[in-house]
Write a structure and sequence with these properties.
The chain is mainly alpha-helical. The protein has one domain. It is 75% helix and 0% strand. The protein contains eleven helices and no strands. The longest helix is centred in the N-terminal third of the chain and has 35 residues. The radius of gyration is 20 Å and the shape is globular. The mean pLDDT is 87.
């Protein structure tokens, strides 16, 4: 087994475990939609709720169709929490543990350069994130066809809800590796990346509460993933994908350079 195949196997096995849990949550949300759909006046009641509350829970999309319902009930918060855990835990699984058990130092005896090792780790993680987004998209479509009669939904919207989501959290994953490379101990790197990720999530919520603090959205990557706007077609998808892709490329090469110069304990 080559080194890349090893890391890819580790990434995919970890991804599958999270995929099962994420799909179960999604299944539960989609299954209750037919019941919610029959409730008269619910959409009007939500529109009368405070703007701030709607912003916090991403309820501004409404309940007009299944796209908007799952964007509010699942992708607005549950998906974000699950993916946040996945991104940071995968970085520790692939990278952090190898530093703690000093296996990287042993790899120096193998015919792999540090650049090659770091490239293969990050490439395996990228593949795992993208496959997670694809499988989630397919699972979402299957569940909708299974539970919802005559569903009115856009396949492209479901794909963007999942794929753009995993791309945003791929940034969190790579940033978590960056923190581990900067900090002397892995646990400090995990704490730092988790704190920054939660802070950015808080800024993204806070930016929706008032126009006076809307400037906060420029300091968080979560501004690129607004499930409500994606479900209604108001998101600037090309811009979001482009900026996220640029950030991923920067972090990819930054991590490679940092790992090349990192002092690995024997």
């Amino acid at each position: 087994m080559t080194l890349f195949n090893y890391y890819l196997k580790q990434s995919l096995s970890f991804m599958i475990a999270f995929l099962i849990g994420a799909l179960l949550y999604l299944l539960m949300i989609v299954a209750i939609y037919p019941t919610v759909q029959k409730m008269d006046g619910l959409d009007e009641m939500m529109k009368q709720m405070p703007k701030e509350l709607n912003a916090i829970f991403n309820m501004q999309a409404g309940l007009q169709d299944i796209n908007q319902f799952i964007a509010m009930e699942y992708y607005g918060m549950i998906f974000i929490i699950l993916m946040l855990c996945f991104a940071i835990m995968l970085s520790n699984h692939l990278f952090g543990k190898s530093i703690e058990n000093k296996s990287f130092a042993n790899m120096m005896n193998l015919p792999y350069s540090r650049v090659n090792i770091m490239t293969q780790i990050q490439t395996a993680a990228i593949i795992a994130h993208l496959l997670l987004g694809i499988f989630m998209s397919v699972g979402c479509m299957v569940f909708i066809q299974w539970f919802v009669k005559n569903p009115d939904y856009k396949i492209s919207t479901l794909i963007h809800l999942n794929v753009l989501g995993v791309i945003v959290f791929l940034i969190i994953h790579l940033f978590s590796i960056t923190c581990m490379l900067i900090c002397k101990e892995v646990k400090h790197g995990i704490l730092l990346s988790s704190a920054v990720a939660l802070l950015m999530y808080g800024l993204s919520i806070g930016a929706k509460l008032s126009e006076d603090v809307e400037w906060m959205k420029y300091f968080t990557v979560f501004s690129f993933y607004d499930s409500a706007k994606i479900s209604t077609g108001d998101a600037y998808l090309v811009l979001c994908y482009s900026i996220c892709g640029l950030i991923i490329i920067i972090l990819f090469f930054l991590n490679t350079i940092l790992f090349k110069n990192k002092n690995l304990q024997l």
